Amino acid sequence: MNLTYSLPESIQAILEKNKKTNNPLNTLIRQGGYMPPNIDLLVDAITALSMGKNILLKGPTGAGKTKFAETLSNLFNQPMFSVNCSVDLDSESLLGFKTLSYEDEKQVIEFIPGPVINAMKHGTFLYIDEINMAKPETLPLINGVLDYRRTITNPFTNEMVTAKDGFGVIAAINEGYVGTVPLNEALKNRFVVIEVPYIKGEQLKQLIQTNTELKDDKTIDLFVKLSADFIQAVYQGKLSEDAASIRALLDACDLSVVIPPKRAIQRAIIDKLNEEREREFIYNLTETLF
């Protein structure tokens, strides 16, 4: 299966460079990479990162934001250090921590770098997942990392760290979820925002074919239709975004190779939901299709 895109020369250069690593775009997709519903998403993200800008992937849960970030990392042939935000995120989780170790049989204090310092010093990507789950007072610690300065004074060592060439920041956000807080303007203005919608139609079919064990075309088409019904129901307010997660749908596709599709959907999707109304709605949709 080949995907051919008409890309600007600057983007083609990145893909050509990537071919030298024997890992072109269509191979990335087969290996579990992100398949964009619109090529502009990929072009815009690559363009922004190529220009040294930070990007913020914004979209519903399960739409593939983390896969998108991993695919960008592979396209640039860049390792990626990750931060998973929560209310417990603190400076040590971001920057690193001190610990006791031994050097020539003497006890010394050693600093263990965290993902931010590691990404800066190695000149690689930094991925900040669910950035709006962090407490508002935590992320300003790295404001200097996210703007033109690309520097930070490590509070644990007093070292001034400046990011090496190649350093870039990709963040992801799910809006409106319990425990999230709105991003302040100073933080948001440090990012180029890219909306990541659900994958649908032919793109979803290709994703199922290349990323799951399910190979039966008729069953795949039914799962694509089921997903479209889920997404429509989300837009109508009948289902939460969790119910339409593409990640959960792919799990159901895998399970359906061994167990009946209706049971696969129950295990991968229905049983995750807390609202009886949503569970019943999906159950009825499943009964209709399968």
Automatic annotation (TrEMBL):
Domain AAA+ ATPase: 51-238
Pfam families: AAA_5
Gene3D superfamilies recorded: P-loop containing nucleotide triphosphate hydrolases
SMART domains, alphabetized: AAA
InterPro entries from the UniProt entry: AAA+_ATPase, ATPase_dyneun-rel_AAA, CbbQ/NirQ/NorQ/GpvN, P-loop_NTPase
Domain of life of the source: Bacteria
Protein name: AAA+ ATPase domain-containing protein
